[in-house]
Specification:
The chain is α+β, with helices and mostly antiparallel strands and about 160 residues long. Helix content is about 35%, strand content about 25%. It is globular.
Length: about 160
């Protein structure tokens, strides 16, 4: 009698495991399952981050600016936007920093002339994604330059 109970327990465990396996397979193949399993940043965002990091404008600092740390790259798991940027020690004026980036090849001013936001298409086929270059500061001797984009077509400034 004792062996029969163990056998039924083992059989029940196998049956439950089989049902869970089939349920997981159905969940993976369904749109809801795919959404749940693909939450957050993935390969597409990694590629977008590489594309943004390759933009030469991040390397091109205004006169008198000195790199203050490494280039950073981040991705927001909820909204899937990617940001790549650098910070510089900079004692110049905001106007001179904006003039410098306003002249950057291919970047177009978004908003007012003092807003510090520029855009341009990036991607294998220019226009795949619109990237936004933002210039923050200088504040307390620090200038932050960041490129932000997502594949959802969000407008990040302006």
């Amino acid at each position: 009698m004792h062996m029969r109970k163990v056998g039924m327990g083992l059989g029940a465990a196998v049956a439950v495991g089989g049902l869970l396996g089939v349920g997981a397979l159905v969940a993976v193949k369904s749109p809801v399952g795919e959404l749940l399993l693909r939450y957050g940043c993935g390969g597409d965002e990694e590629q977008l981050g590489e594309l943004l990091a390759a933009e030469g404008v991040l390397e091109d600092a205004p006169d008198g600016a000195a790199l203050d740390g490494d280039t950073y790259r981040t991705c927001d798991d909820d909204d899937l936007f990617v940001a790549v940027g650098r910070t510089y020690a900079y004692s110049g004026s905001r106007a001179s920093a904006l003039d410098h980036y306003r002249a950057a090849q291919g970047w177009n001013t978004v908003g007012g002339p003092g807003d510090g936001c520029f855009s341009r298409p990036v991607g294998v086929l220019a226009g795949d994604v619109t990237a936004y270059l933002t210039v923050d500061g200088p504040r307390e001797g620090t200038l932050r330059v960041e490129i932000i984009a997502d594949r959802g077509g969000s407008a990040w400034c302006g």
